[in-house]
Amino acid sequence: MNYLVGITGMCLIILGWIFSIEDIPPLKLSILYSIGSFLLATYAYLLNDVLFLSLNNMATIVSFVNVIRALKRTYKHSTSMSWEDLFALQYNRVSGVEREVMNFVKEHLKDSVTHGLEHTMRVYNLSLRIAREYFHRGIDVDMLVLKLAALLHDVGRPLEKELGEHHALLSAEVAKKLLSELNLENEVIERVCNAIVSHSFSSGIQPISIEAKILSDADKLDAMGAIGISRCFMLAGITKRSIAESVKHFYEKLLKLKDMMFTDVAREIAVPRHEFMERFLEQLKKELSESVMYGD
After folding, report:
1. Chain centroid to CA 176: how far?
2. Is the CB of residue 130 less than 8 Å from the CB of residue 214?
3. What is the DSSP letter of 85?
4. CB of 132 within 8 A of CB of 214?
5. CA-to-CA dists, residue 258 to 171, 213, 231, 272, angstroms
6. 36 in helix, strand or coil?
7. DSSP state of 72
8. Is 238 helix (H, G, I), strand (E, B) or coil?
9. What is the pLDDT of residues 140-160, one digit of tens each?
10. Can you list the positions of beta strands (E) in the chain?
11. Residue 273 has pLDDT above 90, yes or no
12. Local structure of 82: helix, strand or coil
């Protein structure tokens, strides 16, 4: 029984070492190491085993180093945030910073139909979906930058018509002002703004960072599939665009989006959405043929 306690402790510590290579939250690593170290120390104390006492001391030191490494990796751009916000960010919960930004977006886009809060939250959640897949592959994504960029990527749209500038540029300006007021680090603000500026299909600016590519793909995905079709005709109703003109929009933009994705994860998500739009257009063409006017 004593040997089982010791071996279990050592196995837990080794698992912690292995998991520390991945993006495992530091708190989980700490718990895993603590339990393993406690079991190993208990075994060593019961049997007065010098070897296991030495192993436990070594394991504790290495474990502590790994936790510090995990903390630095997780929070490298977040030193201006509270611990409550850092914890929320790490565990995909809504942090205080995000909550303030969400409230700002909700108020700022309350009159927007096709690019309002619903669109923003779909882009936000699609961004997280893509980012999680990259985390599993060991690719580092700054979740703070990505979340804030997703929430703020369209806040400049209400000003676009009035000021005559592209909404991506205006959104970046609004985001910079807001995030500065929230006392975020300049590096974070700059990366958020860079992602916002390059997210739009029509801006012609290519995204460079992984966060910018994910945001751009998430935004394009929300213009595809059933949601994309719905938004297309919602906009048609607002602008009084005809069905024929809307169909033209599919061929000029929406059906091209699948091949414009920057990430392979987004491309996988895009395929069924693209195919759904193709089936929809095929059926729509059949039904539109009934509107043809024939001579007397």
Report:
1. 19
2. yes
3. H
4. no
5. 25, 14, 17, 10
6. helix
7. H
8. helix
9. 788 889 999 999 999 888 777
10. none
11. yes
12. coil
